[in-house]
């Protein structure tokens, strides 16, 4: 096995942005007439609609695909982000990774949690792999992301011969 490749689901990004646009339009049209002193709820609904509309439009315009390639032969990780406006590529050599961890976005109480791998690089920089909002398969499952993290650590150990620290400080 020379490399592993993971791609984000840009279709889910598009559906979420379009849903935000539709809900925003419904709220803006529904609460269009907010004149008068007792109409603060209408004003709040209108402003929420404008906010969702702006978020949806911006998310639709910058949606894109993130591709993560773990190249065992060349001993590096390539993160490529492509959207309508630009394309960006980041190369992370295995020897720059000093640790890994699991990060998350969200709270368990609202049942929306996204997990990602947090790479700790030399010189103190941290870099998120499988970042929230990109909709990678298994992004909502901590055990799936933990399995990816452990597999990544094993590949780095095999290729570089170094032990790295995980989030619990274990080798």
What does the model show?
This protein is α+β, with helices and mostly antiparallel strands. The chain has 2 domains: 3-9 and 65-160, PH-domain like; 11-62. The chain is built from 3 helices and 7 strands, in the order βααββββββα. The strands form 2 sheets. It has a 4-stranded antiparallel sheet, with no helix packed on it. Helix 1 packs antiparallel against helix 2. It is elongated. The relative contact order is 0.14.
Defining key terms:
PH-domain like, 37% helix, 3-stranded antiparallel sheet, 2 domains, 31% strand, 171 residues, alpha+beta
Number of strands: 7
Strand order of the largest sheet: 1-2-3-4
- Average pLDDT: 79
| Number of continuous helical runs | 3
The 3D shape can be described as elongated
CATH class wording of the largest domain: Mainly Beta
Largest sheet: 4 strands, antiparallel
Strand content: 25-35%
Estimate percent helicity: 25-40%
Extract low-pLDDT stretches. none
From the 3D coordinates, which CATH architecture of the largest domain would you assign?
Roll
Backbone CA Rg? 21 Å
Topology (SSEs and partners):
Layout: E1 3-7, H1 10-30, H2 40-62, E2 64-71, E3 76-83, E4 87-93, E5 97-107, E6 112-121, E7 126-129, H3 142-160
Antiparallel strand pairs: 1-2, 2-3, 3-4, 5-6, 6-7
How is this structure best summarized?
Keywords: Membrane, Transmembrane, Transmembrane helix. By secondary structure, this protein is an alpha+beta fold. Helices cover 37% and strands 31% of the residues.
